[in-house]
Structure formats: structure tokens, C-alpha cells
Amino acid sequence: MLNTTATPTHCPYCALQCGMNVTPGPSGEGPSVEGRTEFPVNQGALCGKGQSAAAVLSSRVRLTEPLVRSPATGRLETATWEEALDRVAEGLARARAGHGADACGVFGGGSLTNEKAYALGKFARIVLGTSQIDYNGRFCMSSAAAAGQKAFGLDRGLPFPLEDIPKTGCVVLVGSNLAETMPPALRYLSELKANGGKLIVIDPRRTRTAEQADLHLAPRPGTDLALALGMLHLVVAEGRVDEEYVRERTRGWEEARSAAMAHWPEYVERVTGVAVPQLRAAVGMFTDAEHAMVLTARGPEQQSKGTDTVGAWINLALATGRPGTPLSGYGCLTGQGNGQGGREHGQKADQLPGYRKLTDPAARAHVAEVWGVDPEVLPGPGRSAYELLDALGSDVRALLLMASNPVVSAPRAAHVESRIRSLDFLAVADVVLSETAELADVVLPVTQWAEETGTMTNLEGRVLLRRRALAPPTGVRTDLEVLQELTARLAPDLEKGFPTDAREVFDELRRASAGGLADYSGISYDRLTEGEGEGVFWPCPVGAGGTPRLFLDRFATEDGRALFAPVSHRPAAEEPDAEYPLYLTTGRVVAQYQSGAQTRRVAELNKAAPEAFVELHPRLAARLGIEQGDTVTVTSRRGRATAPARVTAAIRPDTIFMPFHWPGAGRANTLTNPALDPTSRMPEFKVCAARVSKSSLSGA
Ligand SMILES: Nc1nc2c(c(=O)[nH]1)N[C@H]1C(S)=C(S)[C@@H](COP(=O)(O)OP(=O)(O)OC[C@H]3O[C@@H](n4cnc5c(=O)[nH]c(N)nc54)[C@H](O)[C@@H]3O)O[C@H]1N2
Ligand SMILES: Nc1nc2c(c(=O)[nH]1)N[C@H]1C(S)=C(S)[C@@H](COP(=O)(O)OP(=O)(O)OC[C@H]3O[C@@H](n4cnc5c(=O)[nH]c(N)nc54)[C@H](O)[C@@H]3O)O[C@H]1N2
Ligand code: SF4
Ligand SMILES: [Mo]
Predict the structure, then answer these.
(1) pTM (predicted TM-score)
(2) Confidence band of 59 (pLDDT split at 50, 70, 90)
(3) Which residues have any ligand 3 atom within 6 Å of their CB?
(4) Which atom number of ligand 3 is nearest to the Cα of residue 20?
(5) Residues, CB-to-ion distance under 5 Å, ligand 4
(6) What is the residue-wise DSSP string for 65-107?
(7) % of residues, the chain, pLDDT over 90
(8) Which among 468, 455, 499 has a CA at the least distance from the CA of 481?
(9) Maximal C-alpha separation, the chain
(10) Per-residue confidence at 697, pLDDT binned at 50, 70, 90?
(11) Is residue 166 a contact partner of residue 332, using CB atoms and an 8 Å limit?
């Protein structure tokens, strides 16, 4: 029996992982949610998505029975769990028998708990024996992860807790709209300003976040690399380099310095559209502060040069002596609920648990031992997320998808959708019938956040216990149960290695991660329930106390020094031209989450943000004869989308913006460019060339 009192747990959505209490309702009424004041990150505050999260738990909007596509009607029809699981096992086994192990693909997500992400990676590697696994985090912060690993030897989004932000002197926030994407975190910036600190926001749009800034720079999309190099140029020219820090704590300065010196302020102004005096003002604010931070989010990261771009921002932080010093440094604001933990425990194409490399013989031996298999059976690295989606129906014939909705969220989505349709077999585990699940041969209805226990690692690297607060409806099973049942059918000898109790999975994950970069071995469920459940920061080896602040003594590189990135500016993969004269950039609105699969099912959120829109500047609108609310058509080399125009002076006149939360005619990803960053394999969601026109249907 579950009790009827409040259970302290965490939000199902973003990487803040706000603390909340969930209370089952009296019979006939749904459960209720309220912010948990004792949890330090949000101190009781929740955004509208968190407040309304209980709505998705109700059985009216969710799946409670498995669905199997009927050969007779071609439609999805309800089935028993036995039938559905048998069909999935058959679909995967047939692909493997006909085309080899790599014909089975697995696609995961950053909303999965650590335990699920770990089990999914293990399932792919030893049950299916496939190298073809990756996940939606590749679309998220992978460029910052790659740059952070290169520079510091370790990728933990924030190397310090959020509580340090109000105590620093200056924050440069690059391409984050956290007023909409993490509303309770705005408090940290307000406190910063109340303490006399400065906020610089870099965004082509004057967002709600930019409105809070002391200085807002609005560069052209895709030009952050030049902007960061221009700032570094001025830091050198004005003699503001922290020479002692550079000498003692870094490597590679000379190359990075000469690359930056080639980026003259006037050249940077031409490339970015940011005037030299503004560039100087930013450098002044940043270097005058005793302590300062650079924080990046998706703006600079979701570019085909995202890794170099983040590298350039890290260079600026290093040259001024910030990383690994108190109340200072570089951090990336990770996005998904378990965007941090989801990238550590083996659902990535090249990775084993503990942030280990699949190509490292010692890592393979360690993990194989924990898994009770020969290291030889572990496949090598596979394809990145977009490349995997692009290979569906050709090399990869069957796909198991858990916790992503690529029909809406992947770049060049019409093409991705056609690749998905060309699969021999698709199985989707989800809580709702997402646009991708609609295409599946089998849909498995799974439990949600409040109905199951598991750990999440928030954007600070804080490992949290998200507790079960409610009994799931009959008819649904957990993702862990699904993996166990599939193993029982495909490789019965391995079934014991797939327990369904999250604590048991976590204890194995601890052993698998021991000695790795993301070492969780000292974290236990008991420890996570102590006190107010404020969590434990990794790395945390056995017997250690957790690490809220990284790099204070040394970086995680071999010699303990941070590494500068010798980077130069280059244009986006697609720049505007005569045919497609505008920049199109994409992002989020406060009331919808990601592909919208969950939040589009919540009435109050839909009321606040019912449909896609196209943001454009009044001058551009006037030139094209477009008025507020007119239906407009946006065209790129990938296709076209239509949505109402939202005319606003808050955007650059050469740029249009669309949120990506909707399928159908307003789907932003019909337009986006899948050009990939060479290192992180991140697609260029934040910039492509487009044109816009008043739709002929307008006013009809
Ligand atoms: N409401 C809501 N909150 C969310 C989510 C959601 O879907 N909805 N998703 C969660 C997830 S997974 C993530 S990753 C985070 C994302 O959080 P954010 O990174 O804050 O979100 P975005 O809106 O994608 O992008 C941020 C800003 O980048 C700007 N931008 C566009 N192009 C460029 C550029 O070239 N350079 C710069 N400097 N800026 C640019 C956009 O104008 C936008 O304001 O949010 C998390 N929180
Ligand atoms: N144009 C454009 N496109 C973008 C972006 C952008 O800025 N612009 N941002 C990108 C980014 S940062 C991200 S993170 C992606 C996200 O995009 P998606 O990968 O599509 O993420 P979600 O919409 O969160 O999809 C998660 C799905 O998993 C289900 N789900 C939730 N929890 C669980 C669970 O525990 N188990 C299972 N089995 N299912 C679950 C949800 O119901 C939902 O259907 O979108 C990317 N796409
Ligand atoms: S900010 Fe993020 S974690 Fe907090 S309530 Fe909103 S969606 Fe949930
Ligand atoms: Mo994300």
C-alpha cells in the first residue's frame, strides 16, 4: 500500500530537477504536486510545467495497454503484454538473424533515470550485441560535453553548485533563455544583480532572460565563435590576461592566443553584427570582476561548430584565470531531466558506464567483469544519433526506442520520419502515443516518474533520488521490466543481469562506474535519502563525501592543467543567400517541453502555448507585407512549414525564430539543417538559411 501523505520527489521535466511533493488524491481526483521548500535548488518554486505535471499521470491522456500493429488492418490495436513483448523480441531477432547484430538499433533519452540509461546500454551491448545505440542527448549538450572534456579532462555541466552564481561578480550567459527554460533558476541571476554583480546575455533575440541583463549582445546566429575570439583579442590587447594562472594551470596558450589575435574587433563586428564598443563594454565588465563565470546553453552549442565555439568561450575563461578558482569558471546549463546522468552510463554510442570509453581496453575489461561477460563480446563504438536515424531502413532494420520523439525533435524531420517508416520493425516504449509511437509496430506503455523510483543527476552533477509516490495504473510496466522481459526472450542466460528493482540496478551501476570519471561508487540509496534529500555530487568514490566544486586543486587532465583550444571562426554550414536570405533559429517557449509529447496533453499549458509561431522583426514584416497573426510560410532547403507570424522588435531583422514543440504544418524541424559538428556530431539546430512569405491561405 502506498501512503496518502506527500512523498518528496522531483519534477519529470528539465535538468533543474526541482524538488516537489506528490500527494495521491482522494478517490476520483488526481494526485497533486507542490514545490518542496527544503530542496535547495528551487526552494519551493516550480514553473507551470512542474506545477501541472500531475495531469500527465491521469489515464485519460496516457497509454495503459500495449499496442500492436495488426497485419490485417494495418492499425495499432490493443494487445496483451505477452503478445507485445513476443512481437518485439521477434522483430529484433529477425533483424539480427537476417542482417547481423548491427541491424538492431537502440535510441535512448536524457529523461531516463540513471538506472534505465545504464540498463539500456547494457541491453544493447550484451543482449543484442549491437554497436548501434545512441540517444537524444546528442542533440542537446554534446558540443559542450566534448569541449569540456578536451579542456578539463572531464565533463560535468556545472563544475560548481548554482548557489555560487549570486556570489560571483559577472556572469556571461551565452545562448540560454533560462527565464523560459528554467524559470526558478532566474532567482540566482536576480540575487547576483542584487549583490551588485553584472549579467551579460548573448542571444540574437531580446528574450525575457536578456531583459534582465546589464548588457545584451545580439549577434547573428552562428557567430558566437567569432564573438568569443574577439573578446579574447581585446583581453590580450588590453593586458587583462591572468599570466600567472595561464602559466601555472594551463597548456596551449600560445596557439590559442595567436588564433584569437587574428580576430580583430572590426572583423568581429562585421561577422557578428555586434559593434566594437559593445564588445569592449562586455570585456570591461567581465575582466573588472574579481570573480566571473561563463555559462553556455543551446545557443552556441547546437551549431556545426559547437565544440570549437564552446572551446572559444572556455579560452576566454581560462585566459582570465576563472576555471577552478572560487566562485568562478565555465559551465554548461544541461537541459533534460537526466541530461547529465544520461550521458555518463553507457547509452552513448562510444561509451561504457562511469563515462568510460568503449575503445579503452581497461574500461572494457572492468565493465565486462561487472557484467559477467568476456570483454571480446562488447561491440565497438556505433553511430551518433542523427547518423543512426539516417541509417534506419538501410543498415539498421529494427529499432527499439525509449524516451525520445524524433519525428518532432530530430533535424530534417521529414527525412527522419521517412527513414523511420522504412524500418522492418519499430518498438517504442513511452507513456503517451507520441508522433513517433504512432509509427511503431509495437508500443509499450510504461510507468512515469512519480510511479517508479530511480536516480537523476541534475545540471549541477547532483545525484538525486526521485522517489515513487503513487501506484501505477494497471496495465503499465516499468522500462526496467521491459528490458528484463526482452532479455528473457532473447538471451535467457542473461536475464539475471537485468533486475527490475532500481536500487539493485543502481548498486551494479556503482560498481561499473567505480574508478571511472563519473564515479558513483560511494553514492547509495541510503545516502540519497538522508537529511532533506539534497543529493550527492559526483565524483564520489567509496568513502568520499561528494564533490560540489571541481578543479579547485587541479583539472582532471593527465598533468592537471587545463587545455586551451586553438580555434578560429568559420561560417555556419548554410549561410543566407539570394534564395534563402534569412537566418532561421529555433528553441523553446516556457509552457511546452521538447517535442511536446507530454506537455501538449496538458490543457493549461496548451492554452498558454497552443501552436507554433514565427517570430520576425517589424522591418522585415513590413518589407514582406506581413502583419501580426498572418499565416506565413517558412521555406528552407529541407522543406516548408507554416505558422502564424509574431511580429516583435525583440529579434534581429535578419533572423526569424521558431519554437520546435509541435508536429505537422508548424514543425520547425522540417526546416532545420542536419549538418553535424565534426567532434560532437551535434546537428546545427540553431542556424540555417530560410525565406519567409505571407502564406496564400492567410486570412482565408
Ligand atoms: N519550457 C521549456 N524548458 C526547457 C525545455 C523545453 O523544451 N521547454 N527543454 C529543456 C532542455 S532539454 C534544454 S536543452 C534546455 C534548453 O535551454 P535553452 O538553451 O535556454 O533553450 P533554447 O530556447 O533552445 O535556446 C536558448 C537561446 O538560444 C538563442 N540562440 C539561437 N541561436 C543562437 C546563436 O547562434 N547564438 C546564441 N548565443 N544564442 C542563440 C535563442 O534565441 C534562445 O533564446 O531547456 C530545458 N528546459
Ligand atoms: N529545432 C530544434 N530541435 C531540437 C532542439 C532545438 O533547440 N531546436 N533541441 C534538441 C534537444 S536539446 C533535445 S533534448 C531534444 C529533445 O527531444 P526528444 O528527444 O523528442 O525529447 P522529448 O520530447 O522529451 O521526448 C521524450 C519522449 O519520451 C517519453 N518519456 C518520458 N519519460 C520517459 C521514460 O521514463 N521512459 C520512456 N520509455 N519514455 C519516456 C515522453 O513521453 C516523450 O514522448 O530535441 C532536440 N530538438
Ligand atoms: S524548472 Fe524544470 S524542474 Fe523545475 S518545475 Fe519547471 S520543468 Fe520542472
Ligand atoms: Mo536538451
Answers:
(1) 0.98
(2) confident
(3) 11, 13-14, 16-18, 42, 46-47, 49-50, 182-184
(4) 5
(5) 140, 335-336
(6) S-EEE-TTT-SEEE--HHHHHHHHHHHHHHHHHHH-GGGEEEE
(7) 96
(8) 499
(9) 75
(10) low
(11) no
